[in-house]
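YM 10:42: Dihydroorotate dehydrogenase (quinone) sequence, as discussed on the call
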Amino acid sequence: MYKAFIRPILFSFDPEKVHHFTTSMLKFSLKTPLLSWGIRRHYGLEDKALAREVFGLKFKNPIGLAAGFDKDAKYFDEMSQIGFGFVEIGTLTPKPQLGNPKKRLFRLKEDKAIINRMGFNNGGVAAAVERLKGRNPSILLGGNIGKNKVTPNEAAVEDYKICFEALYPYVDYFVVNVSSPNTPNLRALQEKEPLTNLLQTLQILNAEKPKKKPILLKIAPDLTNEQLLDIIEIVQTTQIAGVIATNTTIGRDNLVAENKKETGGLSGKPLAKRSTEVIKFLTEQSGNAFPVIGVGGIHSAADALEKLAAGASLVQLYTGFIYEGPGLIKQIKKALLAK
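YM 10:58: structure's back
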């Protein structure tokens, strides 16, 4: 129904406007008893066999919503209700920022992909915290944190510290985002020295808390094998909990859509092979020393199983969720239960 009827209508409108429209409609629907019952009945599927325990947290199922969809912590409850086992909010920055000028989100329909150059548009971490107060504790939440565009890299650590301190009481794990291609010079923070310093600083703050919370690093798919070996060393040196592989790519290989040259990060089907390669490389070269969350190009149950077979402990959806609809979550669950 989604792909046959709903998606063609939605895809005829501006993607950023459609995102706000569909999330608002979902929020409304889940507050309407009859509609809520229908949605839960159609998309719901939970089983104890789907549960996972990773970096000390218990996930009701291994399928999460990747960061970028719920930037401002407005829809995590609804996303949980349609079947996600965990939701990652953000990327959040200390100060509100508008992000890059519109138009900044593009569908590449022929490639089953999206290019975005959003630029960490969000209302700031303080506003998100207000929405997180009193949240349902059964929803497992990650907090994806970044730096403001106006903050120079030399001062970036302070931005991450502000976000960490603000979100600590309200999220279950953290993700350090230094891999978005849409904030100028951000990816320079993936270099060995600044990244080690950033993660060690956050781990010091973490150790001062009543309970340490898992800190993960989200990396770009465009890193070389030598850089990935550095990532493994950094994870082991700083003792962070794991890695999310991968963020969007700046590559444009083998695309056919007319708008393929738009500036920004590419996500979706074209990223599937590379993100799986990165997962496999990290797990094999590290000897499964830390968990990896696999994200990038999951458009089917088979894609999710491929990520898990490559070594991922959990998976996340974003672009595949937009193209395939919420039924994809249930399809993956059925495939996992059938194994």
